[in-house]
Amino acid sequence: MTLSRIYMEQKKNLKIVEKQLESVLWAPHPILNEASLDLLKAGGKRIRPLLTLLCAQYGDPSRKAVIDSAVMLELIHMASLVHDDVVDDSNLRRGKPTVKAQWDNRVAMYSGDFIFAKAIELISDLENHEIHRSISRVIRDLSLGEIDQIKELYNWKQNLRVYLRRIKRKTALLMALSCQIGALAAGCPSKVGIKLYYFGYYLGMSYQITDDILDFVGTNKQLGKPAGGDLRNGNITLPTFFALNKYGMRNAIRNVLESSSTDQGQWDTVIQEIRDSGAIQDSERLSDNYLRKSREILDQLPQLSTARSLKEIADYIGTRNY
Amino acid sequence: MALNEELELVYHQLRSELNHTYVQTILPEPTIDRDKLAIYYLLFRHQETKESAAACAKSVMVAEIGLDTHESMTIEKQVDKDLIKKRQLTVLSGDFYSALYYYSLARQSKLEVVKWVAQAIQSFNVRKCSFFYSTSHLGWAEIIESVKKIESALVEKIACQLGLIHAVPLLNDFFLIKRLIFEKKSQAELGQLSYFSQKLVDGVENVSDKLDQEIKHKVACLSMALDQSAKHSGMFPQVVNYLHARLITLAEGFEERTY
């Protein structure tokens, strides 16, 4: 089964999610309304709602709470993107002007807060305290992960644990939650929810490591910006970590980071050296390890067609090149 | 324990819950509006135990602080690294506080309060957009009305949901007066207005005199309304008494310019 086939199979449900997103995002102010709907129209992979819908198949996927959960997760993701664009001072996302670029930082703050509040309102009807404890913890950790990222900028001395904790909070927890909530909202027992949580967690770790690798090896066209953007912004990701600690590039990397060099040639050289060092292959190995763990979790669950679809998603994460 | 002691305890608990070691090396400690915290506590005390009222009051206050933090967002282009970092942390710490309110209420299983706060936050952001991006020119009276709605977005919702709808006009006026006095103080100290500065500076003349008149008028009206409410026994007396005492202090501070 291919990824596009999985999307096709979930097409009807994803359409319902899309429709509900549109209706939930309506705002009684033209700017808020436009900003929110533009975000929706910009699209995206909708990987989180897809995971929720798939994991719900371990229980009763027709429950209203399943779609509500999928919508809520996408809203949280969207709200975080609007605020991330202010943090990163980004003017483009998916080739379109960001909210902060089209209006200003203030509108971006209001839109993000508005969408986030919509997400919480939507899910507050759900009378399942376990779900709320999980969601609220993940949302809190998500913001802590973002703060950690700012804290560790330009810190070339950070250890692997710090990096892994950061990507866990920044990306993996929301994927873990997407899977767990899908199961719980569909009425599955907690233990199934926990297994799927860990499946999503390992998948998310691999997803972010892959993102961090692609930032080095992607083309300008694929990335929409020069390669090595993370390092240029002081963000030490896994390939840089390996290059620093395993491939003798400590001085070269430290020099560009500490001098805050504006000489793009100097950055390009360091980025090329990281690419050639073996750090990318090491990062890929760690990513593959996480994917292996995610597949092992699925082996512990009933072997429905859902398990095959989830494995397919894991395969896609491992091979994606954009 | 006396009410003042209870409030002091809640305040210190909240201060400690808001603490984030790294954020506070870059940003100032978030300001806790003690009056709002006290009012939330008194409103929740109508239906809840001390502990539960304290937990709810702190959670709603954290949500307010999240919104206030984002309110300090600057819109101009920054190039200075320290200012960029401050801006980044302003966004992220505001998000952290917004997450914290849901986190703490979910742990108390107070899902209905989660919903009220989420709805109030939506109203707040719609009102803020209407204020800053109005399609028509706002006159002084409309600006004041808008500010009143913004300042009370959360407290109004909580009071209504807890069945204390009669307290809403009093709360609205009290927090409007507080905001106007704050604006007056900012103007006196810094030579500028803080929050609705762009609206006022661009579109209104004699802002300082207008603020003076507005504050005096609102204080007189609220004072009368509180006297009336106090006569009706059983009508949320603790809230009325609290507002009464605080209004006197605020008004005296304003008259003597000691704020």
Give a verbal description of the structure:
The complex is a heterodimer of chains A (322) and B (259). With 322 residues, chain A is mainly α. Chain A has 17 helices and two strands. Chain A has a two-stranded antiparallel sheet with strand order 1-2. In chain A, 51% of the residues are buried. The model of chain A has no long low-confidence stretch (mean pLDDT 93). In chain B, 76% of the residues lie in helices and 0% in strands. Chain B has twelve helices and no strands. Chain B folds into two domains: 109 residues, no CATH class; 121 residues, no CATH class. Chain B is mainly alpha-helical. Chain B: This is Heptaprenyl diphosphate synthase (HEPPP synthase) subunit 1. Chain B: Pfam families: HEPPP_synt_1.
Brief digest:
The complex is a heterodimer of chains A (322) and B (259). By secondary structure, chain A is mainly α.
Question: Keywords for this structure?
Answer:
heterodimer, A: 322 residues, mainly alpha, Farnesyl Diphosphate Synthase, 2 domains, two-stranded antiparallel ribbon, 2 strands, 1% strand, B: 259 residues, 0% strand, Heptaprenyl diphosphate synthase (HEPPP synthase) subunit 1 (chain B)
Radius of gyration of chain B: 19 Å
Spatial extent as radius of gyration of chain A:
20 Å
Structural class of chain B: mainly alpha
| CATH architecture classification of the largest domain in chain A | Orthogonal Bundle
Average pLDDT figure of chain A: 93
Strand content of chain B: under 5%
Structural class of chain A: mainly alpha
Strand element count of chain A: 2
CATH superfamily of the largest domain in chain A: Farnesyl Diphosphate Synthase
- The total of helices of chain A stands at 17
The low-pLDDT segments of chain A are none
Amount of helix of chain A: over 70%
Number of helices of chain B: 12
CATH topology (level 3) name of the largest domain in chain A? Farnesyl Diphosphate Synthase
